[in-house]
Every structure is written in structure tokens, then in C-alpha cells.
Amino acid sequence: MAAIIGRRVGAGFWTGVCAAVIVAAASLSGGQVALAHQGSDAPAARQTYNPAPARRAGEGFGPYPLMVIRGATLIDGTGAPPTGPVDIVIENDRITDIVQAGWPGMAERLNRPPHGAAHEIDARGMYVMPGFVDAHVHAGGPGKAPDMEYAYKLWLAHGVTTVRGVSLAPHAIARSERDRSARGEIVAPRIYNYQTMGSGWNRGRIHDAAKAREWVRWGAANGIDGIKFFIRGDETPETVLAAIDEANKLGMGTVAHIAQPGVAQLNAEQLAEAGLGTITHFYGHFESLLAGREVQNYPVDYNFLDEQKRFGEAAEIWHQIDVGMPGWDEYLKKQVETGVAFDPTMTIYAASRDLMRARNAPWHDIYTLLTLNDYFQSTRDNHGSYFFDWTTQNEVSWRRFYDRFMRLVNDYKRAGGRVTIGSDSGFIWKLFGFGYIEEMELLQEAGFHPLEVVRAATMDGASVLAEPSGKPADFGVVRIGMSADLVIVPENPLANFKTLYGTGHERLSPDNRIEKVGGVKWTITRGVAYDAEALLADVKAMVDAQKTARGEAVQP
What we know:
This protein is an alpha/beta fold. 29% of the residues lie in helices and 18% in strands. It is built from 14 helices and 21 strands.
């Protein structure tokens, strides 16, 4: 057995050194990883990563030799305005035609081809979009959400058909789950397996550039799609820059969460110049703009391992940043020229600007596992549980910070840069799937038109994930020849992204009654269609089982 040591650092990730010692079998039995050590106050749960069970009879339908989605309004993901009604023709796992089915406000043409479909979906009055891409995910994990199908079904229930795990789970499990998903054996999105340097091998820690390049070559040959950097600990500038260079030669993706301990050595501008593919979160952007220094004005009692100090102070850089300040436009222009993508993940820190709203989100009572809820509680020895004494001033500072960060992200989009949607859920009161929809809302708040939000969620996310391979994405746009990854929704998402939440949206009907509308109707991935309500019912059953075991009341 090979020992894999990890440490949770940054907002919710597994790195080469984790808050628990993970012991993994080189040849996994059932794909499980046992947790060898955990803090004494950890919530009671099976201490494993449990790979998804095989797709059961009745879970989804398809793919079919011929399936037709009839009469939908299409939002194709490119930024183009809606068009419809259209029929979308799917053969096995590919879109083979998109045909006008009539004219708005008029009866659709009857008995229109194609005929003889094995299955038809009546989507009249509904909207179809490409499947969503979540560019920053983790699949729960030991102690909080060990069953990986829990996250998978929440993602699919919210239209997410592709995820970039950074990492999803330890390498052997993430690689296996990626391949099982690709073969259609499990109910799961398409998976990209990104890992931190050193993950998965047994040749020792990475202390120099030569070792970094060796690990990248090993990873490329052993099912790792890309690398996640933190720029701290063993990840020195020498090793990181060597790894980025080697990854680019081998067609592997790269993404960095530029942790505070490393930003003085490699900020967002420097990493992009070196060929980094994606900057996730906000770290490193504003440090690239500081005049006369390389770090923010930390108080002298700052301690990175003090979680409240770490996250409380992170937003205080807003005092040193003004929208449009000298260097602002030049920075964005340089970043566009490098081709680096911005993956802002504003949702994962949104509790910092309104803790009460995040803690009391309506979906927690129904869809949040009790063990995950336990994990969210504030404590000094659990990463991301940093609300030791969260004050009005903390929230005001985060709102000021968001004002500036949102402007930076929107200006990057306006300058021609690609912005993706990542959620990083499973931390800081954010639930899988639900956090993704909140990120769509936050991009609209930042100034994106709803069509630009959908483009970030689909076409741009797909292009960023496919680009390292040198091949164009075959998903992310509803177009002939593309993979049949689609989201079908009963409400116009451009009018209100809140209608995409699995809990729906409440509004008054014309006769003055409160009605609940929305939610995803169907999620189709590689030609297999899933009923979103059925997926959510499965998740609720998992939560109810924990409640029953603890003697707590179950939601009707």
C-alpha cells in the first residue's frame, strides 16, 4: 500500500499534504480510500471516498439510435440570442440536426420529420441550453460527504454535465471515476482529473525542477489531465514554472490558486506570462496591481494558519485597490494576450459578505447531509470554517472587495478574456449544484448579460478544458456534431437564474397565489437523459437516512 499524504489548504482542495493522512491501495478494492487519522471532533461518518455505484436500472434513459427534443427554445451557448421553436435531433451521443419547428406564437408544423424516434421529449414552452461546465469542483470526501454519487447527482440535477476536479478525489479514484463516467457506467458528469504535484506516485516529494518535470511526465502517462498549483510549501517558483512548462509540452492543463504565502514570489501576472491556463479564485490579481510593493498591507499580527485572520484580512486589500487605477487596463490587456482564463468562484466566498444568508439557504434542510452541515460549523482546526467572530465590519469589507473584484472580472470579459464558472462547493456553506447557480447570479451582478453568463457556463468553460489537448471542444455548444450534453428547463433562465435552483423559485400567480416554479427538468449527458427531480429525490433520501439515524425529523 502506498501512503498518500495530503493537507487541505485554500478554499477547499486536496493538495499533496492534507489535514488527514490518506492511505490508498495501489490497486484499489472497490475504489475506496480509508482515512487513517482525523481530529477527535470530526463528525461521525464512513471515513472513505465511496465511488459511485453502477448505474441502476431506471436511472436515466438512452442513449438511443434516435431521440428528438421537440419544440424547444434554444439558447446555444455562444452568446447568440434565443431562437425557437426548434427540434433537436440526437443519434446515440451526438447532435445530428437542429431544425426549425415553426414560428413563435403560431402552431407548430404537424407530423414533421424525423420519424421513428426511439424516444421524444416534449419541450414545447421550455428552453434548451448546453450542459453546464463547473471548472472547479471537489467530490465531498471523508468525514463530510463520502459517497461520491451525492455530489454527482446534485451537479446533474442543476444541469452540470462536465466538471474539472481540482482534485475531485485522490488520483486513483478520480481517474477511475473519470473513466467509468466516460463509459456510461455511473450517473455522473464528464470528469477532468486535475491533481496537485506529487499526487498518486511513490517517488518522494518534489523539491526541484527536475523532479517536477518527472512527475508531470508520469502524470501525463497515468491519467492526469492537468495540474492544480497552490504556490506554497514544496511548490517553489522553480518547481512550479518547470511543471507549467512541461505540462504545456505534454498537453496537460494547469490551474492555480495562488495562496498568500506564495503570491509575493509568483502573482497572477507572472504565472500567466509563464503559460498558466487558469487563475482560480481572486488571489494574485490585485497583488499584480499594487504600487511599490508585492503584498497587501497585512497587520503585524497576521498568521496564515489562523483561519479568521486569513480570510478576514483577505478582503482588506480593497483599501489598496481602485477600479481603473493606474495599471488596471494594462494588466487586463496583458492577461488577455496570454490567453489565461479567470475562474472567479465568487460563490465559495459569498458567505463572507452575508453569513446569515448562506447559513440559512432553503436547500440546507432538504439536501445538505448532516455530516456536511457539521463540517460547515465554525472551528479553529478545520479549513474554511473561519467565522470565529464574524462582524459587520468583516462583511462590509467583503462587500467592498466584491465591488472591485466583480469589476475586474467583467472588465476582463469586456477586454476579450475568457471567464469560466467554478463553484468549489462543499465548503463554507456552499452545496454542490446550488453553489453553481449562485455563481451564475454573481456573474450577472458583476455586469455580465445573462447570455454572457450562459456562455461562461458552457462554451467558454468547455474551450478552456479542451484547449490543452490542442483539439476543439466537442461539448459546450448546441450545434450539429457536438456531444449531446444539454439542459432542458421549463422557465426562461435569462429572465431569472433563480429558476435554475433545485428548490425552485416562488412568485405570485396572476390570481394572487404563491406558486413554485422552475428547477431543471431534464439533464442530458452524452445522450443519456436524467430526470432532475428524480436525482434530487435520491439526494433527499441520502439526507433522510442520516436524519433517521440521528433521530431527527425528516422533511416531508
